[in-house]
Design a protein that fits this description.
The chain is of the alpha/beta class. About 55% of the residues lie in helices and about 15% in strands. It has a single domain, classed as 3-Layer(aba) Sandwich (Rossmann fold), CATH 3.40.50.300.
Length: about 190
């Protein structure tokens, strides 16, 4: 991939319901930076291989992809896919949803910028319930905290959002008004 200044590479990670999709949509609409979600990539492979996108199947599929191509596979696939969007999205690519340090490291090696979003658990829980994705609206606050703890791993874990936060170029607190958050992100990214 051409990583010259004409094509920005942004890696977007963060806690559940912390504004990642909102920021990615904004970057795509405002700056022609194509959003490619690693979660969408896994769902696509899971549907193709197993006819299902249930959480256990998604984990299995992601692990199979990593076994086949290495721990940075999802970011690599995202960059490969961006090649076909370059003309329509000359601003670059924003890769979101990765949870492994090797995914983030791959983005850094391309000269990319790692952005991490976060907000207080109570704020994120309210957002999650209001967006009503899948079975999310049925989860209690306690289950939300437990699920997040399980999925975040320890700071030294291979699959640690916390480890990515520690190494991020930009960390954004998203508890503010949406437009203020988007303005702050734009400024931090130098766009």
């Amino acid at each position: 991939m051409n990583t010259s200044h004409s094509h920005i590479v942004i890696g977007l990670a963060g806690t559940f319901a912390s504004g990642k999709d909102s920021l990615a949509r904004y970057l795509e609409e405002r700056f022609a930076i194509k959003h490619i979600s690693t979660g969408d990539i896994v769902r696509e492979f899971a549907q193709e291989r197993y006819g299902s996108v249930e959480r256990p199947i998604l984990y299995k599929t992601a692990n199979e992809l990593r076994d086949q191509r290495g721990f940075s596979v999802l970011s690599e696939i995202a960059v490969e896919r961006y090649e076909s969007y370059k003309e329509s999205y000359p601003g670059g690519v924003c890769i979101s949803g990765f949870r492994a340090w090797d995914e983030a490291k791959f983005i850094k090696e391309l000269g990319g910028t790692l952005v991490y979003t976060d907000a207080a658990p109570s704020v994120r829980y309210k957002r999650m319930v209001s967006r009503a994705r899948d079975d999310e609206k049925l989860i209690s606050f306690e289950e939300f905290i437990e699920r997040e703890s399980e999925e975040n791993g320890g700071i030294n874990s291979q699959f640690s959002i916390l480890g990515i936060k520690e190494r991020a170029d930009i960390v954004l607190d998203t508890e503010m008004d949406l437009q203020d958050f988007l303005n702050e992100a734009t400024k931090a990214l130098g766009l």
